[in-house]
Amino acid sequence: MKRSASFVGVMASCALLGACGAASEVSSTPVTSSASASANTTAAPRTTVAPSTTAEPQVAHVGATIAVSVQGTGINNVPADVTLVKVIDPAQGTNQFFTPRAGNRFVGAEFVIKAVRSASDDANSDAVLIGSNNQTYTPDFYSIAGCTNFNEGSFTLAPGQSTTGCVTFQVPSGVTVKQVEFGTQGGTVGLWEVP
Q: For residue 150, with 0-12 CB atoms within 10 Å meaning exposed, 13-18 middle and 19 or more buried, which class applies?
């Protein structure tokens, strides 16, 4: 088996220093000193990311508009003005086949989303409901009577355009709606207190 020059160099250093022990594998990946690694780190271009959702979300009440992050037409987050118009509780399915599981009810959150820059996202991926039991509930994907689920959750908007739709949740009986969240993970999230 042919050995690389770096492997031979490492083994020679081991023999001189007696410090290699019984390592069976030695990486042939070039090793850089901490000084050159530091220089490489500072020379590399920096990527700017949107604020993390670990920061406190912007908080408002139902009916208020909050500037949040949504998915842009690429992989980046872009700003959008989102209004939680109302919470429909309980909500009805669009027909007799769309019913919640036993012990649950449908709850709808009606949003108006206005793009500041071009946006293409899925409201079902951005919305979360928090119950009075402090449990989080993700969207159920059913449409409810009187309010469509955007385009099965999806929306594409040019700058200045807006769209209205509902995100549906299944919430257990006896649990009230405490808060509704909306925003892309890794970006700015809005939190509406209910009522």
A: buried
Answer for the pair 70, 181: CB distance below 8 angstroms, yes or no.
no
Instruction: Summarize the confidence of residues 103-124 as an average pLDDT.
Output: 97
Give the single-character DSSP code of 20: -
Residue 29 DSSP symbol: S
What domains sit in the chain, N to C, each tagged with a CATH number?
5-43 (no CATH), 58-193 (2.60.40.1240)
Torsion of CA 119, 123, 124, 129, to 10 degrees: 140
The SS3 assignment for 183 reads coil
Q: Distance (Å, rounded) from C-alpha 185 to C-alpha 94?
A: 30
What are the angstrom distances between the C-alpha of 148 and each of 55, 59, 92, 140, 155? Answer: 31, 26, 12, 13, 12
Structure tokens at 46: 């920096």
pLDDT at 31 over 90: no
pLDDT at position 55: 60
The DSSP result for 31-68, as a single string, is P--HHHHHHHHHHSPPPP-PPPTTSPPEEEETT-EEEE
- Answer whether 165's CB lies under 8 Å from 123's CB: yes
- At residue 33, the pLDDT reads 36
